[in-house]
Amino acid sequence: MEKYVEHWFNTSPQGVAFLEPIWNQQKTIIDFRYKLVNKAFAQIVQQTQEELIGQIVKPATQQNDFFFTASANHSYRRNAADT
């Protein structure tokens, strides 16, 4: 099964990115970091996969007017059991 998922990820014409949340001291998500992106996603934001992986989402996407943000009406907090 893992081979099929890897094949789909690497050949998909759809941009796909796996993100890791970045938490502040109040245990609220303040941003995300790219953990894995496919070639299609890198092309969308006009950067290479190598440039994106490890980058924080906001700076990486602001330069291309391609910016994702959580709704201001939502608060994403980590539960004490998750820490």
End-to-end C-alpha gap: 30 Å
Tally of DSSP helical segments = 4
Strand order of the largest sheet: 1-2
Q: What amount of the residues lies in strands?
A: 15-25%
* Helix content class: 25-40%
Shape designation: globular
Q: Over the alpha carbons, how many angstroms does the gyration radius reach?
A: 15 Å
Which stretches are poorly predicted, pLDDT < 50 over at least 5 residues?
64-76
The total domain count is: 1
Order of helices and strands: HEEHHH
Topology record:
Layout: H1 2-11, E1 17-23, E2 29-37, H2 39-44, H3 49-52, H4 57-62
Antiparallel strand pairs: 1-2
Protein name: PAS domain-containing protein
Organism: Spirosoma foliorum
Q: In words, what does this structure look like?
A:
- The protein is 31% helix and 19% strand.
- It is of the alpha+beta class.
- The chain has one domain.
- It has a two-stranded antiparallel ribbon.
- The protein is globular and about 40 Å long.
- Mean pLDDT is 79; it is low at 64-76.
- This is PAS domain-containing protein.
